[in-house]
């Protein structure tokens, strides 16, 4: 991964590029509208006066993430950080520890000053419950992104794989891939009702494969069916033309990472595997995942 602050433009380094933002920005936002994409997926469009100053939504920075701060389920208070003197950040309010999760910005509409974030709806967990019940006027605090993570654009083939938590990032990869490239996307969801309509960018070839956990016949548990589907993907004879992006449950990502790094000996620079969440952990820090 290249870690520097280059001039604006596409990433042609051949590896993931980390482009820092000048500062972290706190944005106090409210829900403009909510759309049900599937029975377990909600699209939440956020607005707020602070968005008139813009938002650092960068093309092909598909793995960017912001910190979303949620109201406490009992008090309704949002505990977040605010900028204090000497560029320090301190917790505002007295409602305890912040409740926050990482999310991929799904879309940015500069004309309407609207930021879109997609949520997986589930019965357990504060974020999923909030998304399930969200309605216009509800408030959130969004901080970041601290940096933009630009995928390299000098490959002819892209393989994207993940579970439903990775759909925003994979969708953006499909929509923002360079013209003339081919994308193979493998996405694991609960069942057929969770499939989404994903449209590639102009000039991009797309092969989209959905893996349903309710009918999976390979192995048991989350991720095994995804790994099997990834292994069935046809790869280019010249793997130097391939870039791989995969994200989802941390434990499920490890065998996928090993497959490409150890079995196929794909160079590290051609692979970005991210454990977005970890079973049994409420606020998993994906920056600490082992590389294997």
UniProtKB/TrEMBL annotation:
Q: Per its UniProt record, what Gene3D superfamilies does this chain match?
A: Nucleotide-binding domain of ferredoxin-NADP reductase (FNR) module, Translation factors
The record's listing under InterPro entries reads:
FAD-bd_FR_type, FNR_nucleotide-bd, Riboflavin_synthase-like_b-brl, SIP_FAD-bd, SIP_fam, SIP_rossman_dom
The FAD-binding FR-type domain covers 24-152
Task: Give the Pfam families listed for this entry.
Answer: FAD_binding_9 (PF08021), SIP (PF04954)
Q: Which GO terms describe its molecular function?
A: oxidoreductase activity
- Protein's name in the database: Siderophore-interacting protein
